Amino acid sequence: MGIAKLKSNPVVWILLVAVLMAVILSFLSPFFMTVGNMTNLSKQVSIVAILAAGQAVVIISGGIDLSVGSVLAFSAVVIGTLIQMDVNPTLAMFAGLLAGTFAGWINGMVITRAKIPPFIATLGMLGIARGMALAITGGVSHPVLSPLFLYIGNAKLLGLPIPLYFVIVTFLVVGIMMHKTVFGRHVYAIGGNERVARLQGIPVDRQKVKIYALSGFLAALAAVVMTGRLAATPPSVAQAIELQAIAAVIIGGVSFVGGRGIVLTALIGALIMAMITNGLNILGISSFYQQVLIGVVIIVAVWLDNLKSSAR
Amino acid sequence: MLRNTLTKLTAVAALATGVATTGAYAQDISMAFIVKDMNNPYYARMGDGALRAAEELGINLSYVSAEYNGDIEGQIAVVESELVKGHDAIVLVPMNGTALIPKVMEANALGIPVITADTKVDDGPAQVETFVGLDERTSFAGMAEWVVEQLGGEGQVAILEGFRGSSTAELRLNGMMDVFNSYEGIEVVASISADWDQEKGLKAAEDILQAHPEVDAILGSNDLMALGAVQAVKGAGLSDQVIVVGDDAIPSALASLRAGDLDATIDGNTDRVGYEAVMAAYRLVTEGAELDDWIVVESSIMTAEDVTDEYLASRGIELD
Q1: With an 8 Å Cβ cutoff, is B198 touching chain A?
Q2: Are the CB atoms for B70 and B163 separated by under 8 Å?
Q3: What single string gives the DSSP state of each residue in A220-240?
Q4: If residue A172 lies in a helix (H) or strand (E), which one and from where to where?
Q5: What predicted TM-score, i.e. pTM, was given to this entire model?
Q6: Does the beta carbon of A239 lie under 8 angstroms from any beta carbon of chain B?
Q7: Complete domains list, chain A, with CATH
Q8: Minimal Cα–Cα distance from A114 to chain B, Å?
Q9: What letter does residue B245 receive in the DSSP assignment?
Q10: What is the pLDDT of residues B109-168, one digit of tens each?
Q11: CA angle, A278 then A280 then A283, to 5°
Q12: Does the beta-carbon distance from A281 to B192 stay under 8 Å?
């Protein structure tokens, strides 16, 4: 790969930013670049990263999914409630994954059949799924102490925490789907120009339903990790986390207009945000500044991206 | 907007009787009980106490809240819609000490007496009949004393703060700091806001354990954050070394106490806060009683041995 091509590769750019941040943080605190903290960081980033993978697909298709935090909570609550009822934990996990996928599928159906814009349809689901999570549990958090979830939340495999494997597999599978399959080509086409995509005979509606179902599924997968991490399923969990997922995607340089971007950059975007929180916590800096810094990073990331596009 | 009206209030009757009428029949009296977040077990228990009082008195109680804790705008909207219902009194658990002042003043202008519970509104132009609640600062000072005692007066402690800008979070923090600052041997190595949230509490505690591996105790400003810290301590394999305490005595915290994970929590006896607040409002409305400035409901520190079957039964909690 030539230097010019490297320079225009968005993954390289965003990776440089992440590395730069890591270097700065390791100078500021001796605790940052330690095995223990890197393990923490990989666990802390996992939930937002998994959500960001789904969000990246949705945004590349020209849509948005505001419901992922609520769908996450809903799926977690399904898992927690079933385990409370002595259902086999593996079965409960699959029921949770199904619940999330179903919520996403409904999003897709509402968007394509009822012709409601994604922003509004998923805003509706944001309320519905959260409300269902609260209604099912009466607001109570169930403990989840089954070995399966304790393993997911706390165990390590080959020295790496289990949530990290969830992230790797997610990005591997979603990456292949987006860059190597017909489905992926269709997502980019729909995001680029939906009318043209229709004229080309792409089954736009069917693919859109799949896109939102995928996002719902990944929200449920994040719920599985969350349940393992917390050993509980509080229905109030993951509020406003959709904004973090969207921010991760944008910091990663995925175009908000759709049709352009690489899914992997969302992972690095999520990592950058997690590093800000983790780094400032370690340094003992107020959470006020964390929010300011994340806001600045979002704007600067998009600005840099604009500069690159206009330079080309 | 969430609402759970105990009994449909007859708006006409309520408006007609209003506050001017004295010696009203109990069933004609209606009140609003406005909390921060009905879904939070802490406030749900307060609501239970309030509903129990309303049932005993035979009054109408509109029990409502914002959608989530921190949604100040949402609570303002809830107060606004309760104000037009012409209640005889409003019991308010304000989301924020200052932001709700204009709404209390609106109630003042309408002649509807306001009682605050659990959280105060700041002193100033708003007229509040009484405050019913525990003294958060003293309560958390008590918890800090307990921790110092466990540590033998020496050690590193870390604090998980609530939502910055919430007056409750500030009082709780100040209560702990009052005590920790008074002991030479105690060092507060970190004080991080985790927004009352379990997942954020987990992350913050992980970071604290990373930066301060010698920490002896982590104090959560509520149980959810403390339960997050319990997971972090477990994950770091430090369960035997680090004391973790919380506040509110929510069911999952009681379960954790019993399991030997969480070391202590504060029972704010919030059902009594709700109960006493409605009772006080009733006395005010029916008898025009003089109320104390502060009706204090005392808190208690709970450890594993306090989680008895009798206690659980009294709160209607089942642990398995």
Answers
A1: yes
A2: yes
A3: HHHHHHHHHHHTEE-TTTTTT
A4: helix A162-180
A5: 0.75
A6: yes
A7: 10-24+34-311 (1.10.3470)
A8: 25
A9: E
A10: 999 999 999 888 888 888 999 999 888 899 999 999 999 999 999 999 999 999 887 888
A11: 110
A12: yes
